[in-house]
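Readers of this paper often ask what the protein records in our data store actually look like. The remainder of this section carries one protein's record, kept here as part of the documentation.

:::
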Amino acid sequence: MRDVRIRELEKPSEFALAQAVARAAWKLEDLETSSVADLIAITHAGGLTAGAFAGRELLGFVHGFPREIAGRRAQHSHLLAVEPRAQGRGLATLLKLYQREWCLRRRIDLVTWTYDPLLVKNARLNLVRLRARARSYWRDFYGPIGGIYADLPTDRFEVFWELSDPDVRRIARGGIPSEPSLAGAVAFRAGARHRERRVRVEIPTGAPALYRREPKTARRARLALRRSAESLMGQGFEATGLALEGERAFYLFER
């Protein structure tokens, strides 16, 4: 990644490049993609829009805006996108770590964002690589948006990234993330009041291709995770990791 430089976007033409990256990554219609004017205005008002550049080419970007949670200053990271042909090179991690440093310089030590919990790659980035924690579940958060999500309800996990957490600091310094362990984690039981400290929930591994290839299977998986996550989070659990065992994927929920 030596040829990549991350910096804040400056010119309207650069914000237009970010919009194009978002369309390519999510295959959304123009009306479902943040406008260039919105990206510029939010950045001007105290938000962050930073891009990963290889020369003049924009390969990915991160975009967030200020928020407050119970009197605590935070940033909500609304967008993170990487050009499809540049994915798998660690750019998403580099962009998030840049965002972390940007926030800490401004005495902001909490970043939140939402993501589709059936996307295994995103879950691994958020919960394992970055050590964020999913604490809330939102049903059909954006309504129908199409693109890679087809006709599926846009349910989302909301994650909380504590920037000064010791594990997060270690990862930011280059530490190797530890794999989540399912040892001692019991399988989720519908309707149960779980007294255990650790619970596992299985999800399919084929999203987002699954959304169009097998829409009925995808919808069943969406609703099954909705029921289990809402139940567990209502009992004081949060999603702390996503473990892979062969072709199977399991969320780990802990109190």
Observations:
- The CA atoms of residues 63 and 91 lie 14 Å apart.
- The chain has seven helices and eleven strands.
- The first helix runs from residue 12 to 26.
